[in-house]
């Protein structure tokens, strides 16, 4: 098989929405990628030249690779607990989540330096996501078990955010079940829920400066964007008051992940499509809920990651996507052309490609400041 096929992007206009699909996605179905790994597509002139950090779900390691798939650095800190997610921090350290797993693992957050030395450990029931703030504090998404009959008839598995200072003091908390019914002000969600894991929150992100914040203070820098997968809802928390000030999603989203605020004030969100049976990447305008850009494969069902995933808008306008359940990463242009693809070389004992939760791109300038990899 030719590992660098030529792509023909299709553009569909429907109800004011621009939808892009690429025949390149069809070339990477699970049947066809079997036996291949590493970088399988690379069009340098169309890519954002950068480094990719990824961590396989069944390992205790993270890898930084260049555009050709070469490992330029790895981190590992074996404890017998697999990493849920690993993220490079602004200071160059790596932070990894060991997920709370009832009843065996309480959960923790570990911070490693470049040489994988343990710098810090936070014993919190962490899962899915974290955010290192400009002031050095860390917001961690955590699990808790509460009794709230308005949300669920029995003890419910719920989520909370906790902000922790560098000296391990808790300075802010937000508990999802306490705000559950307030979601009904913005979206149609029925309570009590039938699922014990009623929200399954999977994102915490501090809003950056953005164009929308200038006209709508709900989206100002410092507020928190969340994603509640099991109610198909993304939303914004006013950090000072703790109130939900915006929410959207039911009827459009399907078990989504990773909403992220773009510089232009729009929100990029990974719409998994668990029930729909295909995944798509959406850019939506939070002022009116309009979908202004959409990426899905051609055919749509050749791209399906039903339980996890990530998306990142790159400086050149391309979008970096983790087809997580398939262990596949790709960079796609605004027009829908796949210009870079990477297949996870890590395999399970059964010989299947390991899934990835998230993967993120990092600029040569950032990596160069670490003093290890020469900036290109």
Structural class: mainly beta
- The residue-averaged pLDDT reads 90
* Main β-sheet description: 6 strands, mixed
Number of helices: 3
Note poorly predicted spans. Answer: 1-17, 23-33
The best one-word shape is globular
Largest sheet, spatial ordering of strands:
1-2-22-21-20-19
Percent of residues in helices comes to under 10%
H/E element sequence? EEHHEEEEEEEEEEEEEEEEEEEEEEEEEH
The percentage of residues in β strands lies in 35-45%
Distance between the termini: 32 Å
Question: In total, how many beta strands?
Answer: 27
Q: Over the alpha carbons, how many angstroms does the gyration radius reach? A: 20 Å
Secondary-structure blueprint:
Blueprint: E1 9-14, E2 17-22, H1 23-26, H2 30-33, E3 38-42, E4 51-56, E5 61-65, E6 71-76, E7 85-88, E8 94-98, E9 108-112, E10 118-122, E11 126-132, E12 138-147, E13 155-164, E14 170-175, E15 201-206, E16 224-228, E17 233-237, E18 244-248, E19 257-261, E20 267-271, E21 280-285, E22 290-296, E23 310-313, E24 319-323, E25 328-332, E26 338-343, E27 356-362, H3 364-369
């Amino acid at each position: 098989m030719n590992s660098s096929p030529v792509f023909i992007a299709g553009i569909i206009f429907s109800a004011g929405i621009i939808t892009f699909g690429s025949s390149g996605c069809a070339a990477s179905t699970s049947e066809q990628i079997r036996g291949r790994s590493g970088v399988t597509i690379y069009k340098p002139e169309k890519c954002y030249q950068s480094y990719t950090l990824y961590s396989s779900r069944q390992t205790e390691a993270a890898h930084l690779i260049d555009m050709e798939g070469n490992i330029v650095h790895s981190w590992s800190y074996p404890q017998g607990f697999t990493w849920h997610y690993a993220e490079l921090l602004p200071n160059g350290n790596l932070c990894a989540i060991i997920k709370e797993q009832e009843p065996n693992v309480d959960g923790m957050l570990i911070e490693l330096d470049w040489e994988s030395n343990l710098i810090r450990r936070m014993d919190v029931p962490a899962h899915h996501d974290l955010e290192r703030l400009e002031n050095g504090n860390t917001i961690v998404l955590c699990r808790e078990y509460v009794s709230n009959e308005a949300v669920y008839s029995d003890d419910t598995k719920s989520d909370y955010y906790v902000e922790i200072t560098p000296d391990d003091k808790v300075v802010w908390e937000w508990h999802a079940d306490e705000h559950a019914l307030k979601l009904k002000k913005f979206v149609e969600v029925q309570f009590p829920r039938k699922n014990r894991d009623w929200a399954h929150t999977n994102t915490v992100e501090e809003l950056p400066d953005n164009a929308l914040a200038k006209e709508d203070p709900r989206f100002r820098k410092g507020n928190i964007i969340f994603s509640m997968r099991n109610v198909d809802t993304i939303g914004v928390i006013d950090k000072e008051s703790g109130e939900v000030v915006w929410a959207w999603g039911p009827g459009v989203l399907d078990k989504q992940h990773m909403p992220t605020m773009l510089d232009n004030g729009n929100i990029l969100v990974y719409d998994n499509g668990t029930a729909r049976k295909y995944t798509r990447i959406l850019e939506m305008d939070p002022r009116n809920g309009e979908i202004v850009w959409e990426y899905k494969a051609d055919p749509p069902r050749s791209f399906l990651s039903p339980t996890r995933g990530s998306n990142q808008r790159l400086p050149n306008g391309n979008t970096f996507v983790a087809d997580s359940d398939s262990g596949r990463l790709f960079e796609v242009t605004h027009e829908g052309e796949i210009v870079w693809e990477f297949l996870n070389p890590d395999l399970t004992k059964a010989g299947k490609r390991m899934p990835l939760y998230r993967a993120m791109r990092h600029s040569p300038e950032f990596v160069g400041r670490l003093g290890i990899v020469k900036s290109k």
